[in-house]
Amino acid sequence: MHATALGVLPAVAYAVSRLTASLATRTPDRTLAATRLRRANRLLQVAVALAGVALATDSLLDDAVVAAVPGPTALGVLAGLAGTVVVGGVAPALAVHLGSRPAWAAVTRAAPDYGRAVRRYLLFVTVLTAPAFAVVGVWLAAPSGLPGLAAVALAALALAAGLPVLAARHAGVREPTERERACVPECARGLRVRVVDTSRSPVANALAAGALPGYRYVFVTDALFATLDDDAVAAVVAHEAGHHRRAHVAVRFLAVGGALAPVFLAAGGILPGVLAPAVASVVLLLAAGPVVRWTEFDADDYAARHTSPVAMERALATLAARGLLAEDRGRLVGLVSLHPSVDDRRGRLQDHNPH
Ligand SMILES: [Zn+2]
């Protein structure tokens, strides 16, 4: 029963995605079509992945994998977990992604390249899930109790510090050109600014990552330089620099890590029960939302002080107009979202009176 449902899910996901995508792009406005398409694609992927993982967890799949893998039990458990994620989550989500390709091709007026879409998607999923699997692997292999928890915390810290260093060596990441370097504001001096080439699917985005002194990075996509004027790019880089300078990277790590701690403590047998720690983790994750949202306002404030509030506001307005940032939304989404809405951020920036 579960096996049949798991087998059919990707096909259903593909069909629903094709239909939704063609409905979402029924507008002559290409920017609006792209925004709707991206949103529908993301929502559907989350929905089918959740359904698939629930089905796979409830099925005999992981037990079968655990039994089939030779060697230590930890290895089998990890393989079972990977099987659940790949079969239940990745396969149907990829089907949704592929189902939206024809509509996406109509919007971008470029023929869909399915081979490339699959390769990029799998790379994205690997980058997203590999660190989580590494941490879980360490946890399974480590002794139970507090030493195990310490090992997990150390592994997570090593990944947070080391992954940006690895990413910076990736072929698609380069040093800024002379012209791009001219946009980097004074306040980002000492940080490693790197440009991510996005080629055929340009996404204007920026990210602060890394924790080791001398190895703190600001990643900026090439599309950001193409989308924004020089002053607005400088403001965005200053915003990311602000995340480093005001210790937001560490604050976020601690907020999310602290929220997940009850679940790990319960799984390690240090906390009794399952439900109470799980509830505690959910509550702490909800509480982490406002903290992370505050870091966005604070980084905007940093950018406004070190470049200009007008340029930062212009950057937000342009990115929002391109559908790259959520402009406004319902209360519920705002409550659980990690990013404040652009309207809120622009409002705060307008309070910055340039004297
Ligand atoms: Zn930010």
TrEMBL record:
It comes from Halobacterium jilantaiense. Its cofactor is Zn(2+). Keywords: Cell membrane, Hydrolase, Membrane, Metal-binding, Metalloprotease, Protease, Transmembrane, Transmembrane helix, Zinc. GO terms for molecular function: metal ion binding; metalloendopeptidase activity. Residues 196-350 form the Peptidase M48 domain. Belongs to the peptidase M48 family. The chain crosses the membrane at residues 43-61, 73-100, 121-142, 148-168, 249-268, 274-292. This is STE24 endopeptidase. Binds 1 zinc ion per subunit. GO terms for biological process: proteolysis. InterPro entries: HtpX_protease, Peptidase_M48. It comes from the Archaea.
